[in-house]
Amino acid sequence: MKKMHTLALSIARAKLKGTPYKLNYAVTYRCNSRCRICNTWKRYVISPEKQKEELSLPEIDSIFREVDLSWLSLTGGEPFLREDLAAIALTAEKHNPHLQMLSIPTNGSLPDTIFKTAELLLEEMKIPNFLITISLDGGEELHDQLRGVKGLWKKARETYYLLKSIEDDRFEVFLEFTISKFNAGHLKNALDSFGVADYSHVVVTAAHSSYFYASEQTDLHEASSLLQAHEYLSLQNFSTPESVIPYIYGRLLEKRFKKIPFSLQCVSGRSSFFLDPYGFLYPCISWDEPLGKVKETSLRELLRGKKTRSLIEKIKKGDCPRCWTPCEAYQTILENFPLALAAALLK
Ligand code: SF4
Ligand code: SF4
Questions:
Q1: Which protein residue has the closest C-alpha to ligand 2 atom 6?
Q2: Tens digit of pLDDT for each residue in 141-179?
Q3: Do 77 and 24 form a contact (C-beta atoms < 8 A)?
Q4: Could you say which ligand is closest to the alpha carbon of residue 135?
Q5: Count of helix runs (H) and strand runs (E) in the chain
């Protein structure tokens, strides 16, 4: 990512104005994976009719008119299952002139669709930082087992190399390894199986149970998870500016696993929000505390509302599930950079 400074400037501008700058928007809960650590895919197996309630493009267009974003993450479900994904991103850009970063996580199951959408977006949009992150949980057998779909590893690998062939300095492809007790000791093997020699574009996340993942598993980690975090940090050389935040995240993840407290005030609810596919707004992806529904109350009003203010106070006091997921932690690290770096470097 060659133009990260534009994101930093845009965030600084939003902070001066006191407005949120990041939106995590789950464009759909449709998912063609069957992951062991996430039950999102079950939502429409259980209630297929719910899918009709997802926001339409004109509704999404009205929402984007009401924000001034620097950073947009279009997540899912599997976001590339939404046929109008490119149109959603272009609508966001049209109404958000300060938008500097578009990120899209994917399970990599749809190589051609993902590649064509990336090419189309690079042709049509001017956002200077665009990244796609592909999930990788292990070598071929383990990945397919944990994702519950035979052949998914092959598809994800194909997607990875198609995206790697794109030459555009606005675009980067990352791999994201989700640490859980199910893939302990498999990080290096997973990366080797993909033929990855340079680990600078590899990030880790910890498996979480939350409303967003429709999962209430409480034993996703054990001592082996700490070893995975160590392994990640030892493989990385953190030589590029964009690897500093993942490094700090990884170091603080280690501390979480070791139960060493560090004090960073989460900025969700003030700087970032999560919007679900039906238009319910939340402070973050980890806390089932809806602030309201954008189909009924304007987003602007919800952001200024009493419930939002009261949740911000709770978050400041740490009176929330206190997660440590990159979707939310990265902006907390960015905004508390000196403190976060010091916490990461301290033994
Ligand atoms: S982790 Fe992602 S790919 Fe897997 S079921 Fe959940 S939403 Fe789908
Ligand atoms: S710490 Fe996690 S659960 Fe708490 S507000 Fe921040 S993102 Fe949400």
A1: 266
A2: 999 999 999 999 999 999 999 999 999 999 999 999 998
A3: no
A4: 1
A5: 14, 9
